[in-house]
């Protein structure tokens, strides 16, 4: 590739001949800094081409990849060291933020896929959709479930960013959440209020960023939000009031909605409409103010201040109703803890049973149905596993003598294999500590060893005898002095010198070595559809952590101090007739 000419102006003026396919931005910056004769170094030079600041990026992108062409004009401006460092730090922060968003989206996709399709969870918990009463719900197809689950996870993460005042980052996460919800069938989304609340949160971020460029979009979003809330809550929240036993959880949400509608109307020069919305929002703000006497009563009963305020706000400041609400919430949390413990046990049980040929977990409810009519747990689980959780087909196999016998043989074979794998893992663990592995002819069966009470200093025999690596290790460390006094033979050994122990052979049926991974469809004889994925544990923990903090009322539980200040500010503007523009901060 030949040399190309770049026309430089500003801190240094002249023409540089460079190879666009070889030169990078740092190389060009260093050359311009050297020719300018300035002592500040390359970090004090900014390069602008075609109205765009040329950034270092990863330092390996070539000028041609950045759109720099032959005879391009580049402005070189000199900045002080602090400003140069600031630009660099800003660039790095932008890259870090972009990387984090990519990780967040990937983690949300991974979690939603694992927990929406009936696959065996790799964690000790399961993500499930619930209604406001805490009851599990199934909304639409597997794709719909995944879309809603992903949208909820991203929305929860965005709310955490909003609480930290990181509105720009929150807005980007909310946008991803909106995209996720859009993948769901429209009629299902219209049944819930999550999307309207997300729309309100997006406009709140616009407002807190003071970005006037979003004005027209904000109006459209707020109109959709109001329509969505009315559709899901009913006219004047009648349906919600019925479901919530006369409570008023939505007041703070409508306060924020009306405030934002008033702000948009004001900046659209619709003064009367703005005044009407702001006045209504102010009335709701006053309605949410907590009387000191009511709060003191609840605090005196031992309730935390945050819980007491929430209960009073959602019950229209009525103390008796607030107490009932707090008692009810405490009972819900207790039930949730019990359900979580029960679900953890079920997941552990499912992991023992393995997965179906299509990679699904054994359905515990269907499994319990078969157990309730008299079938053994493992038999019922294996029958369901083989038949993709089809209860009728599983029942046919269980009542067919030949099929039932085949299932029992398979279960025993699997037990033997698992025991063998566990023993081999223990043996390898002790060998790695430096203990010798004795030759095959001296491997003794655990039964013979226990009967003769011998203590043989071999790793294999010790594990066979004592069952666990810890017990074997205790024996090996404590009984080595007795080893030389014993020379034991085993009458149960086969002709090849190996004991007739089901654990003696560490090869699986197909001749492959022992596999210490958890049992799945592939290890149980069926085809495995489980794919190995790289999990971003840190980001997944962040997402699930936010979900664990929330409950059915989290979306309605808003601290409205900032809203109150904004209401007063805009009511004053409307009253005096000022027409003040929000300064864009983008």
Short note summarizing the structure:
With 586 residues, the protein is mainly alpha-helical.
Report on this model:
The chain is about 55% helix and about 5% strand. With about 575 residues, it is mostly helical. Strands 2-1-5-3-4 form a 5-stranded mixed β-sheet, with helices on one face. β3 (about 45-50) and β4 (about 50-55) form a beta hairpin. α3 packs antiparallel against α4, α9 packs parallel to α22 and α10 packs antiparallel against α22. Mean pLDDT is about 75; it is low at about 440-455, about 480-530 and about 580-585.
What is the spatial order of strands in the main beta sheet? 2-1-5-3-4
Q: Tell me about the largest β-sheet.
A: 5 strands, mixed
**Average pLDDT level:** 76
Spell out the helices and strands N to C. EEHEEEHHHHHHHHHHHHHHHHHHHHH
Q: How many beta-strand runs?
A: 5
Poorly predicted regions: 439-457, 479-532, 578-586
What amount of the residues lies in strands?
under 5%
> What general outline do the C-alpha atoms trace?
flat
Helical content, roughly? 55-70%
- Count helical runs: 22
Structural class: mainly alpha
Rounded Rg: 34 Å
Distance between the termini: 40 Å
């Amino acid at each position: 590739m030949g040399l190309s000419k770049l026309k430089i102006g500003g801190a240094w003026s002249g023409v540089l001949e460079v190879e666009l396919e070889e030169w990078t931005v740092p190389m060009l910056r260093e050359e311009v800094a050297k020719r300018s004769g300035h002592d500040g170094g390359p970090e004090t030079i900014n390069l602008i081409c075609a109205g765009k600041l040329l950034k270092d990026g990863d330092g390996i992108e070539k000028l041609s990849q950045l759109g720099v062409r032959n005879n391009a004009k580049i402005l070189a401006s000199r900045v002080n060291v602090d400003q140069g460092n600031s630009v660099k730090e800003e660039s790095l922060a932008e890259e870090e933020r972009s990387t984090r968003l990519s990780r967040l989206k990937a983690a949300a996709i991974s979690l939603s896929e694992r927990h929406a399709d009936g696959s065996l969870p790799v964690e000790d918990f399961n993500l499930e959709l619930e209604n406001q009463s805490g009851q599990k719900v199934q909304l639409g197809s597997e794709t719909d479930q995944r879309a809603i689950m992903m949208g909820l996870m991203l929305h929860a993460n965005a709310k955490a960013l909003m609480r930290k005042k990181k509105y720009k980052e929150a807005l980007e996460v909310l946008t991803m959440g909106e995209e996720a919800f859009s993948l769901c069938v429209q009629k299902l989304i219209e049944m819930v209020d999550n999307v309207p609340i997300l729309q309100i949160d997006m406009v709140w971020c616009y407002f807190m960023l003071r970005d006037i460029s979003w004005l027209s979009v904000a109006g459209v979003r707020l109109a959709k939000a109001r329509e969505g809330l009315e559709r899901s809550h009913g006219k004047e929240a009648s349906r919600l009031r019925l479901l919530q036993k006369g409570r008023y959880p939505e007041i703070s949400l409508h306060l924020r909605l009306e405030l934002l509608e008033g702000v948009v109307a004001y900046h659209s020069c619709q003064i009367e409409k703005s005044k009407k919305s702001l006045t209504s929002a102010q009335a709701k703000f006053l309605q949410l103010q907590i009387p000191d006497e009511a709060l003191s009563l609840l605090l005196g009963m031992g309730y935390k201040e945050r819980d007491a305020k929430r209960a009073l706000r959602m019950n229209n400041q009525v103390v008796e109703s607030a107490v009932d609400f707090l008692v009810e919430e405490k009972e819900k949390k207790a039930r949730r803890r019990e359900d979580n413990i029960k679900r953890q046990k079920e997941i552990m049980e499912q992991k023992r049973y393995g997965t179906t040929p299509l990679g699904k977990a054994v359905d515990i409810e269907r499994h319990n149905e078969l157990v309730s009519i008299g079938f053994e747990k493992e038999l019922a689980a294996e029958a369901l596993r083989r038949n993709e959780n089809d209860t009728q087909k599983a029942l046919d196999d269980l009542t067919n003598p030949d099929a039932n016998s085949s299932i029992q043989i398979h279960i025993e074979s699997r037990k033997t294999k698992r025991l063998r794998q566990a023993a081999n893992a223990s043996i390898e663990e002790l060998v790695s500590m430096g203990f010798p592995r004795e030759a095959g002819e001296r491997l003794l069966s655990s039964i013979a060893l226990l009967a003769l009470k011998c203590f043989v200093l071999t790793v294999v025999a010790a594990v066979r005898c004592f069952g666990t690596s810890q017990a074997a290790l205790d024996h090996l460390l404590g009984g080595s002095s007795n080893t030389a006094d014993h020379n034991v033979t085993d009458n149960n050994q086969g002709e090849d010198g190996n004991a007739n122990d089901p654990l003696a052979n560490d090869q699986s049926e197909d001749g492959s070595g022992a596999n210490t991974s958890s049992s799945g469809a592939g290890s149980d004889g069926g085809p495995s559809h489980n794919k190995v994925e790289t999990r971003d544990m840190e980001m997944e923990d962040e997402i699930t952590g936010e979900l664990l903090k929330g409950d059915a009322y989290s979306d309605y539980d808003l601290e409205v101090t900032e809203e109150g200040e904004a209401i007063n500010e805009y009511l004053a503007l409307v009253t005096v007739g000022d027409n003040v523009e929000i300064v864009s901060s983008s």
